[in-house]
Write a structure and sequence with these properties.
The chain has 347 residues and is α+β, with helices and mostly antiparallel strands. It contains twelve helices and ten strands. The protein has a five-stranded antiparallel sheet, covered by helices on one side. A three-stranded antiparallel sheet has the order 6-8-9.
Length: 347
Amino acid sequence: MRDDPGLDTARIAATLDAHYGLRVASVAFLPIGYDRNAAVYRVTADDSAAYFLKVRFGPVDEPGLLVPRALIERGVPTVLAPLRARSSALWCPLDGGDGHTAVLYPFIRGENAMVAGMSDDQWRTFGATLRQVHGSGLAADLRGLLPEETFALPSAALVRRLLAQVEDPATAFESPAAARLAAFWRGNADRIRALLARAEALGSELRARPLERVLCHADIHAANILVGDDGRIHLTDWDGPLVAPRERDLLFVVGSLIARTVEPREEELFFAGYGPVAVDPDTIVYYRYERVVEDLGEFGKSVFLDPRLGEEARAADARLAMGFFAPGGMVARAETVIPRWREPPDG
């Protein structure tokens, strides 16, 4: 969330004192992230130690907390996991917070890879870390707790509903950003319907294939990789772990334009760390379309329907949604998969 939700910082401090034994000196809202259902803060304790706090407006997704903690316990150090409260739980209720929940993390000084980029060694480390995640065995150990890929394109219904709304002559928007995006959607309605149909056809084909399923982060783009000032990287934001083909994560490397463009050389460095692997191009293409459809739905919902959103943030989301259809953008390049990985030898 980029707009301050105005939570009472004294109540946040009291929560951390009660549940973590943390004496808080200051709480500062951080205007970062795109999650409309959470806000993040830098917390400084009275001993000057710094922490990163996520407040979710509703219940937490417990698997998203259990998975990074379990990975650290299995020897994957480049993962950012929540700290345990006094009760040993990985979260606590925000006192008087109307069902809000709080998750506390160590504060890592650094910048996300979308801004900072990554060195050659960091790209190789990223590859090796993601291989450890995929090979961790947690997909089997947490079976029943983690959602599994169905290739059902869950955001398609929302996009169709929003498209019908903007095409309705009776629909009008007071927000200039919403009006611009609505006009853009109307002008690209055929393209939107075509990509929905293509993605759904691919999903139907993939459901019939015996694809290997592994634990996936499912949103491991550059903005969710924290590059520490000490040179270490940390995989963050485990909000939606998924049991899925490994391509669900490789989407963010193979020819990716998400968050930042992954250059061919960076892709090769990643696979030098990840190791030989057989990548299915059709699955990559499906996930590219799914990402566009998901983001179209989320951006459309925020721009058209969210009364809490300020005009500046609304305009930023509208620009991102329109950017998918730019020349050389995600829609234009969705079907192009250039192999830069090394497949494992036969036998």
